[in-house]
Amino acid sequence: MTAASADPGPITRDDIEQSFRAIQTGVVGQVKSKRTRIIQGASAAAVVIVLLVFLFGKRAGRKRSTIVEIRRV
After folding, report:
1. Is the pTM here over 0.70, yes or no?
2. Which pLDDT tens digit goes with each residue over 8-29?
3. CA distances from 59 to 24, 41, 48, 49 (A)
């Protein structure tokens, strides 16, 4: 007979807390290991977005700008 099939008795608050801590430890460990890649990806995406906005704004400014020529007489 295995330990899982034996009747352990009622589930206590300590059993539930222990299970939640085990789950939380696993999730926190995975997030910490992937944190640097997530930050690098977000930073690269932000730089690309800012660059695209700058370039499209520059192009739109050229299209809409008026050239005023002043001549002295």
Report:
1. no
2. 678 889 999 999 998 888 888 7
3. 50, 27, 17, 15
DSSP string, 10-72: SPPHHHHHHHHHHHHHHHHHHHHHHHHHHHHHHHHHHHHHHHHHHHHHHHHHHHHPPP-----
Single-letter code of the amino acid located at 20: F
Tokens of 26: 């696993």
Q: How many CB atoms lie within 10 A of CB 19?
A: 11
| DSSP letter (8 states) at residue 7 | -
Q: How far apart are CA 8 and CA 1, in angstroms?
A: 13
5: tokens are 């099939």
